[in-house]
Each structure stands twice: as structure tokens, then as C-alpha cells.
Design brief:
- The protein contains 17 helices and ten strands.
- By secondary structure, it is α/β, with parallel strands linked by helices.
- It has a domain at 66-342: Alpha-Beta Barrel (TIM Barrel).
- It has an eight-stranded parallel β-sheet. A two-stranded antiparallel sheet has the order 1-2.
- Helix 5 links the parallel strand 4 (93-98) and strand 5 (117-122).
- The longest helix is centred in the last third of the chain and has 23 residues, at 340-362.
- It is globular and about 70 Å long.
- It starts with a helix and ends with a helix.
Length: 449
């Protein structure tokens, strides 16, 4: 019975489909008319068949994804209460963000440290503090988001200086698990293309591998942001696992299932008609899940213009709970396997990213090119192309550059400065500036209110 319908039709080959399409085009060129080529040199065809399968083995988590709640540490008592409440309401993981040292005993009081996945996003480096914190938790489910190269890229400076930062990191790596995070979100939020994001992630991580050797492999994890190009973002995460596996073979390391912490991008989020941000983050979280993320941390619809608030955090967490429980995506990390289109895009993205990575390595490596400003220039070129498409209406953000609500007023609703800040402080290198697409338009609308 299962094959009844298919028995009524003969199998048609890809050349036959293409021939039929060519006839229907009535003389128009197939390649010029129906092949879509992205700025990343990815070719999208009008149809796919089993011949497009690559059968690449993607090593993803076997347990599905964990829902994470991100919490800024301003008051340890309040942050502790927020963490306990989030775990009671469905989260399985907590990310604590800190700009300075904190009282971790108060922060972690009454938390199940063995069974809760904990992330510490530290905007400082202090080996003594980090080692004590790790010893207190005593769990392999604890991840430290420490990235001295990422800090240099985003701020333009080392935490202290190159020598001291490496010494502190060496002590941390020696005494803790999961102690190095490659923060690729800065590239995505600054406007880097998907190919660039993967190439820079690989080259960024390779700097640590060059310094520490293969012993650090099991202590590295990655932080990715995903945008609104649904299938391409699924393919991006899958392609990265392929690339990472290939790189590790050069270090004689096999079967390493790296840990991916994924969250939605800020690049396409809007100040006006901000409820649309919930739709954007929903599709982006789906890309993260289907792409094989180990942990997904959603962002609130008002993340960049309101202080942390219970409503925004609850909605963002519930979006993930709906996807996990009601949409039955709790173990969807391998759903994309065998999808002709996704496998084709994954292969093309990984090949293009590998070419860029090799170019970086031939040019002296990621850190050298970062100091020379090459990485910044390449990202800026990509960001400018994307910005022009937004300004011309080719890229549409509803409620922002299309279907504006003229009665929408935001001037009195801003608790945080929502735009890229102009910095005048001296930096060692040019920092990579993260900026949303709608900022210039929003500034004009705020001025005109």
C-alpha cells in the first residue's frame, strides 16, 4: 500500500526534468533564468534529486538540544532567583553573563550543579577566579565562554596584553574543562557572509590549536548566531561540523563532536514594530535546532532596547518550549539528513569556506590578518553590500523598511541605547563593529517623532 501511488509513475531522471524545463523556457537560458547565485557563490537550482546527496556524515548531539536562559549578573541574589525560576519553567541550561568577578556561592545556591548545563560568559580573564569557580561546580556540564582572540576582535584590545592573556588562559586550560569558546557571533552580527563566518570560525579556532596543540581540542566549544536565511542557516551549522572534523584530522584527532551554543542574530532585529522580532527569532531557533545545535538560547524581542525583564525572558523561553514539545523538535538534530537541497547547500558552503580558510592560513593566519585589518575590511565589504540591499528594499524587514506603522512611537520606550556606539578610546587594532541593518532608518524615525 505504501508504494501504491509511486507504482503509477515511472522514475524520471534529472536530465529529463531539465530537458522539460528547457522546453518550457521557450528559448530562455536555463542558467541565467533559473539558477540563483548568491553573493557567497552558492548556486541554488530550481529542483534537486537524489544525485545531489552528498551523504556527508554530520556528528551531532545524540540527545537533542537544551533550552538555555541567559541571565546578566547584576545582583547575585536576583540572578540566582531568576535561574531557579527559569529551570522550574522549562529551561535545562543557564548562561550567566558577567563583566566582573561575582559571589558564585550565592549565585549558584540551590542549583543542581551536576544536571544543569551551565555557561559562564565572562567579559574578563582571571585564572584564579575561574579555576576556583570550576572546582566549586565540579561538573563536565560547565562551559566557560573565554575567548581572548574574540575579545581582541570585538573590542580592539587584549584583556591586558598578548603575553598576560595567554598566560592566564594557559592556566585556565590546564585546570578546567570546556574552557575556550570561539565566539563567532561577532562576525555574523557585524555583517559577515555565511562563508566568511565559517572560515573565520575555523581560522579563529586554529590559532588556539596552533598555540596549545591537539590537547585543547576537547576543551573548545563554539558560539554561533543564526540569521533569517532559514535553509542556509541550517546548512551553515552542518557545514561547520564537516569543516571542524576535517581540520582536526590535520591534528590526528578523530570523532570529536564539538559543542555548539547557538542563538538568534541581532543583525535583523528592529526597534519599530518590535513584535515581529518574535517571528524572526522563532524561525532562527528552528534553524539552530535543525542545524544540530547542542544548546539554543533565544533572545527576547526587546533585548537590545529594554533591560532584562520577566515578560521578555518568559516569551523567549516559551518559544523554545513550543518548538521542543508541541512541534516535536526535541530530537530534530538529524532531520535534515538526506534532504537534497540542504545537503547540496551544505557542501557548497563548506567548500567555499574552506577556500577562504586556506587563503587566511597562507596569509599568515587569522591573528595576523586581524592585526593587519584584512578581516575587518572583508566583513565591512560584506556588510555594506547587505546594507545597500536593505536600503534599496531588496532585503525586507517588515515594519521597518516595508509596511511601516506611522503611529508607532518608540522615543519614550528606550531603556538602553539601541545603536552601535561610536568609540573614541584608543585600541590596538580596529575592532569589528556589530550593527543592526535598520539602525540608520530607525535613527531618522526617532528624530522625526
Amino acid at each position: 500500500m505504501d508504494n501504491y501511488l509511486f507504482n503509477e509513475f515511472r522514475e524520471i531522471s534529472a536530465p529529463e526534468w531539465k530537458q522539460k524545463i528547457q522546453v518550457d523556457l521557450k528559448g530562455a537560458d536555463y542558467n541565467d533564468t533559473l539558477l540563483w547565485k548568491t553573493d557567497d557563490r552558492i548556486t541554488v537550482k530550481p529542483f534537486y534529486t537524489k544525485e545531489d546527496r552528498t551523504n556527508a556524515k554530520i556528528d551531532t548531539s545524540e540527545k537533542g538540544f537544551a533550552i538555555c536562559q541567559s541571565i546578566y549578573i547584576e545582583n547575585e541574589e536576583k540572578s540566582n532567583s531568576s535561574a531557579i525560576d527559569s529551570l522550574k519553567r522549562g529551561a535545562k541550561s543557564i548562561e550567566f553573563k558577567a563583566k566582573k568577578k561575582f559571589d558564585y556561592k550565592t549565585l549558584l545556591r540551590d542549583l543542581d550543579l551536576k544536571n544543569t548545563i551551565l555557561y559562564f560568559n565572562l567579559k574578563f580573564i582571571d585564572a584564579d577566579f575561574t579555576i576556583k569557580l570550576s572546582d566549586y561546580i565540579k561538573s563536565k556540564n560547565c562551559y566557560f565562554n573565554i575567548d581572548i582572540i574574540g575579545n581582541l576582535a570585538s573590542s580592539g584590545n587584549w584583556f591586558t596584553n598578548l603575553t598576560d592573556d595567554h598566560k592566564e588562559l594557559e592556566r585556565i586550560v590546564d585546570k578546567t574543562n570546556n574552557s575556550v569558546c570561539i565566539n563567532t557571533s561577532v562576525y555574523q552580527n557585524a555583517g559577515a557572509s555565511i562563508t566568511q563566518q565559517l572560515a573565520y570560525a575555523l581560522a579563529h579556532a586554529n590559532e588556539y590549536l596552533n598555540h596549545f596543540g591537539s590537547k585543547i581540542v576537547n576543551k573548545i566549544h563554539f558560539n554561533f548566531s543564526v540569521g533569517s536565511n532559514y535553509f542556509f542557516e541550517i546548512s551553515k551549522l552542518r557545514a561547520f561540523r564537516v569543516l571542524w572534523t576535517s581540520l582536526l584530522k590535520e591534528y590526528d584527532v578523530k570523532n570529536n563532536k564539538t559543542h555548539l551554543f547557538v542563538l538568534p542574530s541581532l543583525r535583523n532585529k528592529t526597534l519599530y514594530d518590535y513584535n515581529v522580532n518574535m517571528l524572526r527569532t522563532t524561525s532562527e531557533c528552528m534553524s539552530a535546532i535543525l542545524g544540530g545545535a547542542d544548546t539554543v538560547s533565544n533572545i527576547s524581542y526587546d533585548d537590545f532596547f529594554h533591560h532584562s525583564n520577566e515578560f521578555g525572558e518568559r516569551i523567549s523561553r516559551n518559544q523554545l518550549l513550543i518548538l521542543q514539545l508541541e512541534s516535536e523538535l526535541s530530537e530534530a538534530q538529524n532531520f535534515a539528513n538526506g534532504a537534497y537541497y540542504i545537503e547540496s547547500i551544505t557542501h557548497q558552503i563548506s567548500q567555499n569556506a574552506l577556500e577562504v580558510f586556506k587563503t587566511i592560513e597562507k596569509g599568515g593566519g587569522f591573528l595576523k590578518q586581524l592585526k593587519e585589518g584584512i578581516i575587518q575590511r572583508k566583513i565591512k565589504e560584506s556588510a555594506n553590500k547587505e546594507q545597500l540591499k536593505f536600503d534599496s528594499g531588496e532585503i525586507v524587514l517588515l515594519g521597518s523598511n516595508k509596511l511601516q506603522n506611522d503611529k508607532d512611537s518608540m522615543k519614550d520606550d528606550l531603556e538602553l541605547f539601541p545603536f552601535a556606539k561610536i568609540r573614541n578610546d584608543q585600541t590596538l587594532i580596529q575592532p569589528i563593529i556589530q550593527k543592526r541593518l535598520a539602525e540608520k532608518l530607525e535613527q531618522k524615525r526617532l528624530h522625526d517623532e
